[in-house]
Amino acid sequence: MLNTILGSKDKMSALYFEGTRIPVTWVNAGPCVVTQIKNKTKDGYWAVQLGFQTKKLKSTSKPLQGHLKTTIKDNKAPKTIKEIRLDEEPTFSVGDIVTISKIFRKGDVIAVTGTSKGKGFAGGIKRHGFHGGPKTHGQSDRHRAPGSIGQGTTPGRVLKGKKMAGRMGNDTVTIKNLMIVDVDNAENRLAISGGVPGILGSLLFIKRISEGNLEDLMTETETVVVEEEGTENTEEAKTEEVSA
């Protein structure tokens, strides 16, 4: 059964559920067109190839036009093509349209995969959380230096994987256990609890993990009972006045 759909990140917002404010990210999910079916007998595994969004046919290469000939409409071809692996034979066929209504419901627990924002070349403090060097005792220009990066004669080299300065971000990131707060079938949009990786408009893989309950997102607030000072004394005073 297909449990994944392609989408693009939209704006962040907030929704309310039974008085609880839930920060959400709106995602334009689908509709996706099935462009190819992978057969386990022929290809060694089951998979569905999905096409997302569209672009002009003149911007598509000739080999790709041949591959997508059954899904090209109005001189437009799918812009993004990705393959989703399955555990069993899919029920879809080439040309079918996959929408969010066929996969997701409110409260579903999902995992979102995307490419994180690129931060460019960053130092060790920003990239890995180094503490930096001492601020006194003659240190005037080494506050954000990485420090020693290796030993002496043994091993006589810098070991692989050493945390150092370098390009930060622009990595494939998966955030699990998010929840579907709202489903807009008319506009093909999903409201997902919390934040998701990537910039606005970036490609996302939304995968359904299991069913859930929106009540799990609610925050319990303590009920505070405030007693006014002198309430008991006032009542006693009223009693005395009546007796008099």
Through-space gap between termini: 84 Å
How many distinct beta strands? 12
Molecular shape: extended
Helix/strand-derived class? Answer: mainly beta
Low-confidence stretches: 237-244
Largest sheet properties: 6 strands, antiparallel, barrel
What proportion strand? 35-45%
**Strand line-up in the sheet with most strands:** 1-2-11-10-7-12
Enumerate how many helices there are, as a single number: 4
- Percent range of helical residues: 10-25%
- Strand/helix succession: EEEHEHEEEEHEEEEH
- Write down the overall mean pLDDT: 86
Number of domains: 2
Describe the structure.
This protein has helices spanning 40-43, 62-67, 124-128, 231-243, and strands at 4-17, 20-29, 32-38, 46-56, 76-86, 97-98, 109-115, 118-122, 166-169, 172-184, 189-193, 203-210. The strands form three sheets. Strands 1-2-11-10-7-12 form a six-stranded antiparallel barrel. A four-stranded antiparallel beta sheet has the order 5-4-3-6. The model is unreliable at 237-244 (pLDDT under 50). It is built from four helices and twelve strands, in the order βββαβαββββαββββα. The chain is mainly beta and 244 residues long.
